[in-house]
Amino acid sequence: MQYLLLIYDSEAVLEKMNPADQAKIYEEYGKFTNEIKEKGKHLAGHQLKPVATATTVRVRDGKRVTTDGPFAETKEQLGGFYMINANDLDEAIAIAARIPSAKVGSIEVRPIVAREAAANG
Amino acid sequence: MMLRLGARGTAVLCPCNVFVDSCMGFVDLCMDFDKLHREESGRILATLIRLVGDFDLAEEMLQEAYATALQKWPAEGTPTNPRAWLISTARHKAIDRIRRDRRLETKSGEILRSSPSVTEPDAEVDDDMVRDDRLRLIFTCCHPALPIEAQVALTLRTVCGVTTEEISRAFLVPVATMAQRLVRAKSKIRDAGIPYCVPLQEDLRDRLDAVLLVIYLIFNEGYLASSGDALIRREMCAEAVRLGRVLCELLPRQGEARALLGLMLLHDSRSDARLTAEGELILLEQQDRSLWRWEQIREGTRLVESALRSGAAGTYTVQASIAALHAGAKTAAETDWRQIAGLYDVLLRMEPSPVVEVNRAVAVAMSGDLEAGLALLDELQERGELQGFHLLPAARADLLRRLGRVGEAAEAYRRALGLATNDIERKFLLRRLGEAEKKL
Questions:
Q1: How far apart are CA B320 and CA B270, in angstroms?
Q2: Average pLDDT of the residues in B21-28
Q3: Predicted local distance difference test score (pLDDT) of residue A75
Q4: Taking burial as the number of CB atoms within 10 A of a residue's CB, which of B26, B119, B301, B321 is the most buried?
Q5: Rounded to 5 degrees, what are φ and ψ at B73?
Q6: Alpha helices (H) in B251-314, listed in sequence order
Q7: Do the beta carbons of residue B197 and residue B394 sit within 8 Å?
Q8: Average pLDDT per run of 10 along chain A, which is 121 residues long?
Q9: What is the separation of C-alpha B337 from the centre of its chain, rounded to a whole number of angstroms?
């Protein structure tokens, strides 16, 4: 079995946190990541950029509709994910629009925080 | 900010190469600067953003380059190509800034963030490249992944060079709110990876629609806003027209862009005739047509005709055609209402909207069948889609007035007054209500 673990955080709380506490959390994350890597449990994991960078893509009647902001409605549930490489947001949106569910559901496009290999732990 | 803008936007300016061609004489450096700022800052910034890869850094370094120019040019003479001089000065300042920031980051032992890097100026002042830069900037500012208010603000700030203070005054929001909106938009461009490019051909139509909407919103803010600074509002109209011209120049094959420019010119041509000295609204029917700017009407009409010929007529072409029919009538009585009603039919098929239905009903009524028009409005009212929209009872009131049903007209005027928030429109409705009550 494979599982996707979705991390929900309050950006406001994290932003207000002092640098020392923030560093502590990152350290804990590093430790945790290493632990599950060593145990062979880790497949992929990344931090997402803040929700302000989110864009939602839908395709209706063959027309692509792009809107600012995260996907916020509750009548649809998270059903899967792709992690992709794209040159920029336009390419990411074009790929997102080709996901079959874009015709009935919504695809949220969120950029991933890039880290130097050393900082990734 | 180092430089104040001059009387920007008081005239509709042709965004041709005025500065580079004619300002070599530096008769009055300050005047040249104003002109430079007004007509060139958008282009220079557009190129700088490409070279520097960062909106804020490009803006800041351009301001510094202007400051350096103010010190150097009076003594050393204006360079032969001021635009190229400003671009390369700003670019060098950006390189220095990035080097300094990197040193600081490394010293403090921070993780190296992805900081901007400055590209070679390749063909930085090559005209084609500069033209493409402006188009890139417009499409980036009007990217659908940005909220629409941010698209409008960012376009005015970066493409038109309007100050944050002026934008906030035009949209009646506090300066801090507007500044925050701009900061957020620029952060999203950077963090989400919104590209600095002209969309691919297959996406161009959709993306162009977004650009046209932003330009039309800027125009409408100036044309329809009920309160606020009248001068700023006029400038918004002038900025929208300028943007429309730039877009037509950059994308000469897009009929809808020409149609939007035509539509704005046609509306704007009536601006001197639509208000009394006391600021009261004068309807099209009662306007003194000698106050219309006919040169502008001729240009607008030519643009509409050329958009119609281009084949792919969209909603702007249809709206502009309606505006051209109104403008082409020598007197209100000569207005071709039948054709206008037909065009509203076309518009409804393209984009169903109850507001367009109101306009269509009025056109049907004015083409000679008041009862039929009123029936259409009554049906709309029963559907209840336009509850809260004052123009529906106002239109009903007008048709009832024309039919001599003053009692019902007065009641409809009262209902419209209960919904209207625009002071100019309220004054107008109050006067009409008074007239109807007198006849009761």
A1: 14
A2: 34
A3: 73
A4: B321
A5: -60, -40
A6: 255-268, 294-309
A7: no
A8: 78 86 89 88 86 92 90 75 89 90 87 64 38
A9: 28
Instruction: Determine the Cα–Cα distance for residues B137 and B132; give it in Å rounded to an integer.
Output: 9
Strands of the sheet with A107-109, listed across from one edge: A63-68, A55-60, A107-109
User: Whole-angstrom distance between the N-terminal and C-terminal Cα of chain A?
Assistant: 25
Mutation pick from B113, B141, B194 vs chain A, by most beta carbons of A within 10 Å, is: B194
Rg of chain A, C-alpha, whole Å: 17
* Residue B327, C-beta contacts closer than 8 angstroms, at least 6 positions apart: B266, B269, B270, B292, B297, B300, B301
CA separation for the pair B43, A120 (Å, rounded): 41
The residue of chain A with its CA nearest to that of B147 is: A68
Instruction: Tell me the DSSP string of chain A.
Output: ----PPP---HHHHHHS-HHHHHHHHHHHHHHHHHHHHTT------PBPPGGG-EEEEEETTEEEEEES----SSS----------SSHHHHHHHHHHSGGGGTS-EEE-PBPP--GGGG-
Percent residues over pLDDT 90 in chain B: 55
| Nearest Cβ partner for A66 among B144, B184, B187 | B144
Structure tokens at B14: 């042709």
The Cβ of residue B281 has, within 10 Å, a number of other Cβ atoms equal to 17
SS3 category, B403: coil
Two structure tokens written together for A88:
């920029």
- Based on its alpha-carbon atoms, the radius of gyration of chain B, rounded to whole angstroms, reads 25
Please enumerate in sequence order all residues whose Cβ is within 8 A of that of A99, keeping only pairs 6 or more positions apart, or say none: A82, A107
**Domain definitions of chain A by residue range:** 1-45, 51-109
Which CATH number describes the domain made up of B18-106? 1.10.1740
pLDDT of amino acid B401: 95
Domain boundaries, chain B: 18-106
Measured between alpha carbons, how far is B167 from B161 in angstroms, rounded to an integer? 10
Q: pTM score, two decimals?
A: 0.80
Chain B residues inside the 8 Å CB shell of A85? none
Dist. CA B238–CA B135, nearest whole Å: 19
- CB A56, CB A67: distance < 8 Å: yes
Chain A residues within an 8 Å CB radius of B144: 66-68
Do the Cβ atoms of A90 and B199 come within 8 Å?
A: yes
What's the rounded Cα separation, in Å, for the pair B395 and B380?
12
What is chain B's percent helix, strand, coil content, to nearest 5? 70, 0, 30
Which of A55, A87, A115 shows the shortest C-beta gap to B145? A55
Of B42-56, B116-130, B170-184, the range with the highest mean pLDDT is: B170-184
